[in-house]
């Protein structure tokens, strides 16, 4: 074991949600979806602030 680095497990999910009988597993981060959500949220906040 000496000299071995601890590598993250390749197949480990990024997100694993379990609620009752519902289970949702995300294997990799959806970068395009996150980018779109952040852009829309930023635009909405800017519009809300400037409309006041």
Textual characterization of the structure:
Strands 1-2 form a two-stranded antiparallel ribbon. It contains 1 helix and 2 strands. The termini are far apart. 0% of the residues are buried. Helix content is 38%, strand content 19%. It is elongated and about 60 Å long.
Principal-axes shape call: elongated
Taking all residues together, what is the mean pLDDT? 88
Q: Widest sheet: strand order?
A: 1-2
Could you tell me the strand content as a percent range? 15-25%
Through-space gap between termini: 62 Å
Helix content: 25-40%
Strands, total number: 2
Order of helices and strands: EEH
Number of helices: 1
By secondary-structure content and strand pairing, the structural class works out as: alpha+beta
Which regions contain 5 or more consecutive residues with pLDDT less than 50? none
Oligomer: single chain
Gyration radius, rounded: 19 Å
Q: Largest sheet, described in full?
A: 2 strands, antiparallel
């Amino acid at each position: 074991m000496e000299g071995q680095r601890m590598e993250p497990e390749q197949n480990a999910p990024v997100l694993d949600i379990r609620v009752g009988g519902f289970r949702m597993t995300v294997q990799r981060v959806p970068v395009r979806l996150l980018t779109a959500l952040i852009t829309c949220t930023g635009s909405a906040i800017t519009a809300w602030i400037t409309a006041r």
